[in-house]
Protein: PX-domain-containing protein
Organism: Coniophora puteana
Amino acid sequence: MATLPRTIKAAPGSALALFTADAPPRPHSHAPGFDAGLNSSAAWTEHMERFSLSDDEPDDTDDTDDQEGRSARALYFFEGRIEFRELIVEAGDALDILKEDAGDGWSLARTKEGQIGLLPRTYYTFTTDFLAAPKGKRHGKEVSTGSITPKASPKKESTPLPLVPQITGEWIPNLIPTFRQSLLRGRSINRFSPFVTSGAEDWVLHGVDEPLDINPPIGMGHSHMRSTTSASITDSNRLSRLVTGGIDTHFIDAGPSWQSQVPEFGVLVHSPQTHKTPGSGGSTYTTYSVTSVFHPPSEPELNGEGDGENGVASDGLPKATTPNGSLPPTTVTVQRRFSHFVVLHTVLLRRLPSIALPPLPDKQYAGRFSAGFVEARRGDLERYINRVVKHPLARHTEVLTAFLGCESDDDWDELMPRYLSTLPSGSSFFARVFHPAFNIDVDEASETVDRFESHIKNVGRGVQGLRNMFGRYRESRQVISQSERLLSYSMLSMITSKSLSSTPPMGISDEEDTHSIHSVNSKGKPNGMLNEEGAWCWREGCTECLKLTKALQKTSETLQSVAGLYDDHAERTQLATHEALKSAAHPYPSFEGIIDTHRTTVSRHKESMREGKARCIHHVNEDMAARCETVLNTTMAEMEAYHRQKVDDFANIAKDHLDGEIAFYEQVLARLRTARSQFDSPAYDELGKSARQPSRYERELDHPRVESRPLTQPYPHVYDSAPMRPVSVAIGKLW
């Protein structure tokens, strides 16, 4: 069996400190999804009368230092891009907001050191309202100071600099080259566009700078680069013996659809354990057991094709078999923390910039060690990692192989800094994609993305409605449970002649109760209602009534048992189905970048063809059109991957729900059949041989257990309209 190269151990680093489970992560400018929809360039363009982006950048000590602004404080750490005039601030830094609304969610701010730049509007809060009153002024209007005013108002007028027109692509000729032009090499000014951040634009415009050393297969598109990362195989990484695949090389079949290079397998996340590091100031964290389950090989492998002799596989591992002759599943278990999942997710986003990865569960700041939250996170992490391994590209990445197969904690700790230092693939990702040549019709691709976008938006709305209805469905099971208990108590009250305190739900009026006889016999039992043996009869020694009373009592107890099944089913089995619906919810946010990249690529393809015809530059535009086809193959393969995932998701959800309902009703039927058998011989005859013993539910007649405890609800999806918010954000809302 072929093996996957295993990564070489990197020297230990300190980057892991950034991903400890106990340190609350602060919002970061380069976090996944943060850049979506933001356009820092537009904000700067709007204010170029004061700040030029040319190579001759004015000093920050310009007359802007004399401009007043509103006092504010940074709420989070923000590491902006200096080349785009974005600030770098720490949480708590004092700021002056020169322009609150600079466009596209940005503000123009100045630090106390005098640096002026852009800052997201949600990363600071104004402190003007919290200033103390000036000395000697206890009442009256607020006194204005030299540095703080309600609104930014320049003290002196300055001659505005001329506005520089900006367009996508090369700038207007005859203009002096600017810093941004040389930096972006003619790319779109909006650096936050998924078409840009994924590297698709750089690929379409320029291809790759490195020479390609491998020729593409016959009938395929462009050639691809081979990974230059050196690798070795060690016995400690058993997962590399179980999965195979070409690192960083991706193939697209006709469809288009991704070609799977690694057989599918499943992953279980289980057995969470809470640990505390030694010392008085030690931190607390939770680890999860992550078990990869590899199913037996296919029939050709079982027949010995490709294997060695004497029951030994080609990779040197013995071929163990089960008693029935089939190979048993192979499992590999590792211990991982939530911060390790963050590392995996971060690296996958960098290495696979143009695929739709599932969202990582939200970080929790309070109550993260409670049993309920730990179990909820375990389920979320299991659903997350299974969606990752189901993607044909993510399944054979080097970082995922190490994440699932590196059984040594020390080895994994040494590998993480290396993976975290991985640079984004950018345009080189598309250079490693093989696809059939000339398999894309641009007009059809344009129609396809419109239909796809409409479909996944409707899927999101439909799943959200289903989730809401399923919550009510679970609650209805509790209503049935309450009815079963009331029916049980009522039956027990009838055969024991003990009043049930909750008479209104039973429909018994006070007038009917006045006819009850409350006299008791010598043994304290209601006179004439129960005989000496506890039978529901006024006759002593009545065997028939004794058998009937005991059978009815067992029926009452069975109804209590059935009520418990309803409660447990709604609390556990149906909760799992309710949680599973999160995996299929909100597909649009995950594919929004894919849709944007697809549409922009279609536009570039059409523009390149029009420009080629107008300028008679056929060979250049043919190359660009071919590169556009590579991007379109990638985006359409992602759409097909979603199509397959959707079919699997909803089929599995429906099957799991039906299996759970069948198992539940089988338990109910089994208990009801047992109760029913008490009325038939020989069980019915046995009931008359001994006196009736009081039921344990008789003592509850005065205070019946009818109300069920509140159902555990699924933790919100990261894209839900009202997700759980970090404590810091919640406090910030109160300022």
Q: What stands out?
A: Residues 618-677 form the longest helix (60 residues). The mean pLDDT is 74. The two ends are 61 Å apart (CA to CA). The chain has three domains: 6-11+218-439, 38-130, 460-503+530-734.
